[in-house]
User: Fold this.
Amino acid sequence: MTWVPDGSGLIPRVDVLGVEVSAIDLEGAVRQIRDWIESDTRDYVCVRDVHGVMQSQRDPELIRIHNRAGLVTPDGMPLVWCGRYAGARWMQRVYGPDLMLAVCRESRVDGVRHFLYGSGVGVGDELASNLGDWFPGIEIVGTHSPPYRDLTDDEVDETVRMINSAQPDVVWVGLSTPKQERWMSRFRPLLDAPVLIGVGAAFDMHAGRVPQAPEWMRKAGLEWSFRLLAEPRRLWRRYLNSIPLFILQIALTPPRLTAEPTAAP
Assistant:
């Protein structure tokens, strides 16, 4: 459980097939991240969708990684609907690309330092340039595009030195699921930055490499269809396998609140 930073109570979680998703909205997520930075707390954020929940069904360690996170935000509308069904009527979507922009927008005031880790060669630099245009004064202290293979021990050590020497407050992780969740779990004890946030495709979207679905499709829970049309070869198997199975398993094991809030959010 995570304390609400304004002292109003606890952020409850919704158990969705074993993955505990934070019953939160975008404003609350940004507030929690800001609190961690101000208090120099070490934590990480998983931005979760149906695909990640279904991957976790085959991997108990991945469930543990999610449930150890300070926040597991509902990235997709199906998880929001699960939360509302379980009683968290205030729950709203905390979409990875939106979370990134909201944190970056607010961070200009506080001088928060950002490091961009992930995606393909050149994407981090393009993303940093765009963020600088959108949020003048933002501090991007480094970018790095890692190899697609697993890192060697020497590369792990070099990555830790590189990020820690840049002294970021937030490390944005733009890798695929579950790679980015495993990365954050592994690197959390090694990095000095207060917050690690895995936002996946947000890197490519905000760098202009991948289009975003229209807002109405995102709100209606139809973003998956837009992304499938944009990248059919890469995504068809993911959606064909995960969505029907998710619906079936949710029908058999309905979501539930793991704790009631001590005060209305």
Remarks:
- The mean pLDDT is 89.
